[in-house]
Specification:
By secondary structure, the chain is an alpha/beta fold. The protein contains ten helices and ten strands. The chain is globular and about 50 Å long. Bound molecules: adenosine-5'-triphosphate and magnesium ion (MG).
């Protein structure tokens, strides 16, 4: 049974020895987003100067109200929404405007908020899709993700559409891990899951991070998210309104009042 203690970031399992106050950006950070503006329709920006960095080995959370632009930010990093101004850099290399397939080759994995598995394909076929750019690596990577998620190996011939929501989320994360990414972008991995399955997903996210993968995770489950991340950002109206360690944000009176209030009364 999962306890809240299992989900705190400040344990000894992390690959990087991150302290609660390790908030300064490395030079260069693994991911650096500066003043990013992006949107879907001409003249209408959804992101209005989003600025964020993730150091190597960090687990970063992004929380914020519905429609704030959280998913749009991840899509902008992954080349699915055009960046109008500002810059995105990976390991100090400019990636602004790169296509998703190029970003996958550069070590970026993305798990979208919805439709993140192919329901008519088996688990194994879904994972093959994740490594179509380098199929020779399939056996080794398949073994690796089965180490993290044993059910994938046990049920490799089962169609993804017949899995539970939590299991599908595991397949989606495993697919993104097939190319051995250094950066994993997760959009609401716990959405729509029961509290027990949410705990399971958060534990898996921590385990993936502990293997050395830097993670930027968007979550609507804000309090839970702030418990497990090293640092977090509150995104509001397309820019970061607050940032700090998970504990700093979770205890900040303004953040509680504006973004965690209803949850804190729950
Ligand atoms: N494909 C799209 N085309 C046009 N507008 C879009 C598209 N996707 C999102 N938007 C708009 O962009 C704004 C931000 O959406 P986004 O999905 O980034 O928010 P979010 O913070 O992820 O919200 P949620 O918590 O509901 O997932 C919203 O006003 C939304 O209607
Ligand atoms: Mg979203």
């Amino acid at each position: 049974m999962t306890t809240p203690d299992d989900l705190t970031a400040a344990d000894s399992t992390g690959a990087a020895p991150l302290r609660a106050h390790a908030v300064a950006p490395h030079e260069p950070p693994l991911l650096n987003a500066e003043d990013v503006e992006a949107g879907y329709f001409p003249g209408v920006n959804i992101l209005n100067g989003m600025t964020l960095y993730a150091n190597k080995g960090e687990l970063i959370g992004i929380i914020g109200p519905n429609g704030a632009g959280k998913s749009t930010f991840l899509k902008a990093v992954f080349g699915l929404v055009a960046v109008r101004s500002g810059t995105l850099a990976l390991h100090g290399q400019d990636i602004t405007g790169k296509r998703a397939d190029e970003l996958v080759r550069l070590g970026v994995g993305f798990v979208p908020q919805t439709n993140n598995v192919f329901p008519s394909l088996t688990i194994e076929e879904n994972l093959q899709m994740g490594i179509y750019q380098d199929p020779k690596q399939f056996p080794a990577r398949f073994d690796m993700v089965c180490g993290l998620f044993p059910m994938l190996g046990d049920r490799r011939r089962q169609r993804a559409g017949s899995l539970s929501g939590g299991e599908r989320q595991m397949v989606a994360m495993a697919r993104a891990l097939m190319m051995n990414p250094s950066l994993l972008l997760l959009d609401e991995p716990s959405a729509g899951l029961s509290p027990a399955l949410q705990d399971e997903v958060f534990l898996r996210v921590k385990e993936i991070n502990a293997t050395g993968v830097t993670i930027v995770m968007v979550e609507q489950n804000a309090r839970r998210c702030l418990q497990i991340v090293h640092r977090g950002y509150v995104l509001d109206q397309g820019r970061n309104a607050y940032e700090g360690t998970g504990a700093e944000l979770a205890n900040d009176p303004k953040v509680i009042e504006l973004y965690l209030g209803s949850l804190s009364q729950a």
